[in-house]
Design goal:
binds uridine-5'-diphosphate; binds magnesium ion; about 325 residues; 10 helices; Spore Coat Polysaccharide Biosynthesis Protein SpsA, Chain A; 2 domains; 8-stranded mixed sheet; 8 strands; alpha/beta
């Protein structure tokens, strides 16, 4: 007899007091609908992770958990960023459930794709990536920068599923293996594929944020791309080698030019080329040093092996999770 899987919907929340009261009931309803359809166990839960919010997010989460056992809350001791908050939730859920679905709390990702994700899991996939089929509701700027982000990542050797953010189903089996990935610089959407196991994609349309503002302006997106690339790929270092070879070729030609100038008696006119070469090489060297420094910085952080997050509080778990769910 097959057992219905216990689903945990894991939602990182940072300063989402405007959004949470609107979207939390949507997620609760989703759990109910899926449980009534017999796809998931009625013991499934919504796990809200407060990423050190400065507004009323945690009191909203506590109130939700108080009123309805379907909600559970986890609070980080300070803001650790989307990826760490999500990881904290996933690791917390691993021992409690069979499958997790991670989703943002702003209502941009269509919760209806969850049903299809669970079906794909029941068909044998251990990881199901939610992929945005269209981005019509995003502004032109957000759309181009976001799509450019995936292209640059790929070009730099960091394989990611195109147009997939962090809306995905991951089974507890995969998460248990994932717990062994001890790195501190985490980029979940690039790391989950590294664990392996059978995976598939589910397509959905991305909507507009219900309220509040995006926490991923261009600056943070660039930082995420840079983190993703340097965490997953050493292609930038290889590119330095290629660049170094090319510059050596140019330098060789410059030497020949300098020698010819010297023997033809035009040495003084070489001042300009010397200056250009010095500046050019100086610039390139600095860029290269910066990139290498970035990796050394990562090694430094990894060797410290600091905990990636600290949990400060949990909502109390109701004694009987089968309690009738109040409205
Ligand atoms: N988030 C978080 N910690 C942060 C920033 C964001 O937990 O430091 C959460 C946020 O509450 C949301 C999700 O991560 O649920 C995605 O953030 P957002 O919607 O602002 O990003 P976008 O969808 O615009 O890329
Ligand atoms: Mg969003």
């Amino acid at each position: 007899m097959d057992r219905r899987p216990v689903l945990y919907i894991v939602i990182p929340c940072y300063n989402e007091e405007e959004v949470l009261p609107v979207t939390a009931p949507v997620f609760r309803q989703k759990i109910r609908t899926l449980a009534e359809a017999g796809k998931i166990s009625p013991e499934s839960r919504v796990l809200l992770v407060d990423d050190g919010s400065k507004d009323k997010t945690w009191s909203i989460i506590s109130a939700l958990a108080q009123a309805d056992p379907v909600f559970r809350g986890l609070r980080l001791s300070r803001n650790r960023g989307h990826q760490n908050a999500l990881l904290a939730g996933l690791m917390e859920a691993t021992s409690l459930c069979d499958i997790t679905i991670s989703i943002d709390c702003d209502g941009q990702d269509d919760p209806d794709a969850m049903g299809r994700m669970v079906e794909a899991y029941l068909d044998g996939a251990e990881v199901v990536y939610g992929v945005r089929s269209r981005r019509d509701t995003d502004t032109f700027f957000k759309r181009t920068t976001a799509e450019g982000f995936y292209k640059v990542m790929k070009w730099m050797g960091a394989e990611v599923v195109f147009n997939h953010a962090d809306y995905r189903l991951v089974s507890a089996k995969v998460l248990k293996e994932f717990a062994g990935f001890r790195e501190v610089n985490i980029f979940l959407r690039g790391m989950v594929p590294l664990v392996g196991f059978k995976s598939t994609c589910v397509y959905y349309e991305r909507r507009e944020r219900i309220a509040g503002e995006s926490h991923y302006p261009l600056k943070k997106m660039l930082a995420l791309a840079f983190d993703g690339i340097t965490s997953l790929s050493i292609k930038p270092i290889r590119m330095i080698t290629t660049l170094g070879a090319m510059i050596s070729g140019v330098a060789f030609l410059l030497i020949v030019y300098a020698l010819v100038s010297y023997f033809t008696g035009n040495a003084v006119s070489g001042w300009a080329s010397t200056l250009i070469a010095t500046c050019f090489l100086g610039g390139i060297q600095l860029v290269c040093l910066g990139v290498i420094g970035e990796y050394i910085g990562k090694i430094y952080l990894e060797t410290k092996a600091r905990p990636r997050y600290v949990i400060s509080e949990r909502t109390t778990v109701h004694q009987d999770p089968q309690d009738p769910v109040p409205d």
